[in-house]
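Cross-posted from the bioinformatics board.
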Amino acid sequence: MADSMLPAMTKHDLPTPALLLDLDRFESNLRKMAAHLRERGLGFRPHAKTHKCLEVARAQIAAGACGICTAKLSEAEVFAAGGIRGLLITTAIIGRQKIERALRLAAAAPDTIFVVDDDNNAQELSDAAQAGKLDLNIAIDLYVGNRTGVAPGGPAVDLAQKLAKLPRLHFQGLQAYVGYASHTAPFAKRCEVSREAVSKAIETRRLLERAGFAVPIVSGGSTGTYNIDSEIQGITEMQPGSFIFMDVEYSRIGGRDGETYSDFSRALTVVATVVSRPEPHKAIVDAGIKSFSTDKGLLPECRSVGGVVYAFAGDEHGRLDLSQAERDVKLGDRLEFVVPHCDPTVNLYDQIHGLRGEKVEAVWKIAARGMSQ
Amino acid sequence: MADSMLPAMTKHDLPTPALLLDLDRFESNLRKMAAHLRERGLGFRPHAKTHKCLEVARAQIAAGACGICTAKLSEAEVFAAGGIRGLLITTAIIGRQKIERALRLAAAAPDTIFVVDDDNNAQELSDAAQAGKLDLNIAIDLYVGNRTGVAPGGPAVDLAQKLAKLPRLHFQGLQAYVGYASHTAPFAKRCEVSREAVSKAIETRRLLERAGFAVPIVSGGSTGTYNIDSEIQGITEMQPGSFIFMDVEYSRIGGRDGETYSDFSRALTVVATVVSRPEPHKAIVDAGIKSFSTDKGLLPECRSVGGVVYAFAGDEHGRLDLSQAERDVKLGDRLEFVVPHCDPTVNLYDQIHGLRGEKVEAVWKIAARGMSQ
């Protein structure tokens, strides 16, 4: 829906459950991160797995991002078709069919960077690139975050040397994402964990340079470590995702200056409606497991009425404990909840409703929703 | 995609992660439940919140279902537009806008049944029905399952008497869904819990009949209690959902004859690809929090290789512990996983791939995916 086509609509008009984005907060979060990185001379390539939304990606690029990261090829295809460039796909492209798709993507968006952590996969990419007469930009994915990647140090240098012999593959640098660091609390511990992991990437960079490789890109960092990793010499760009929206999980990681992480504002909520009042201190809302992420046992936090405690009550419902609520809650009341974990929550919805105050200023399609392939 | 348009495709051709349905098992599950209820003279109104898919609903009706349940109005709209009739919407319709939509639905699908648990909501429905010159079928939602509903007994009879005075509303009976019973283990405890809760609905039915009301419908039951509730005199129809697919959660509730609940076959899996092998006993697959439900702490179970243990490794990845694996797992291997909880997992995907053996026989759109409104 084009924004200009929207009738005058407020958040009170939206059928619930619905995903709401406070645009003032979103824009402030975006400006803050972009300025932080710009001031340090670092590239800004935010992770689009958080939002899966073309309009958000465009706003990020307008704010100074050099491109975006996507977790999966199918996400990248959506963004490329929407005109976004500067793509870095953070998961390796495995299997003949996906490699064929990756080549089509590279033809349309030649500056796309693909990651590899395996010799044979690199060989297959090179073979396909030669057959298709296309060049592919490659970053080596380093195993510094307990997820994917080749071991830093010698094994990574070996892989770079193999890449150098493979036609049509162009080594761009390193991906060093430390997933487990991003939610480590408190701040001092997070610094320690992230610095230790990232130091392996920096050492690998040194080894590569000593072996004669240019390493223009070292990409990493997250919303939790943006102000840690950005102080480490040798990182060239950062790929934070959640900072635009924020969630309950990130609120709890502890900030640099105290217990609360409040560097970015909680801009994303889900609005739900009370659909049953079965007991005096209980209310049932129309948002459950299919409307909020449930990983890590975190719960939605009610923003509309203090003291309301949410519990999941099945796939479609939540149960509110009102015994400590600051005011009564009636059938039909609409309540907003900060989401437990933003990325998988956004992935449940088809649209983000951008609010300016109470007015719905924009309805953005979550165009890559469900694109996990 | 029309089935006849499908090229010869096997499950090995599908980009991963993908949702797979073994059609032999699915059809067997469907026949078994339909026969169980038919033999007892009970109506079969399976819950479509599990599948959100028109083709599955059509198969259920072909197997003898009198209609389907949906959890939400927006789901029902999708099924009604697809020609499905006999809809029972199991959550109350709250608020002016949704009531207007409910009236449009009733105009298109006049046999739809709506539930109420509140006087004022009933009044609003009646007012709107009068204004629209339409009749609405109403079931009273009973609070027997710790979620929504009016208290059984006197309060329910009072509500029926109020309904009787409201023009255009036609009382059809009771909804008595006992959510918490469905996964109570073991079987003996499940019997006790379900019978105690359902007895309140049966007693309410008696009170209503004594007060002069016909009660043609008493709807309840689940995949966990289908062979418990179906033996209770006074239940007229059952609304099980998960039995068509099954999942890890239902496997663990205990069967009538022992520790394993194997009344229905595990027909639904997610196929994922190994995208990294960072350590000898670790493999990373391309399916994580966005590809499997995460509620209740249950994990996907690997069906392809014995001894493989899955752990979530973020939104897009899973980490496999191979230390006890029956065989090695290589980069590019495709592994199938039984899903932790079927309903919210299906809601993450756009398509169900129906398999006959290894062949993809059908690709069904999950047309009501994300319809939580």
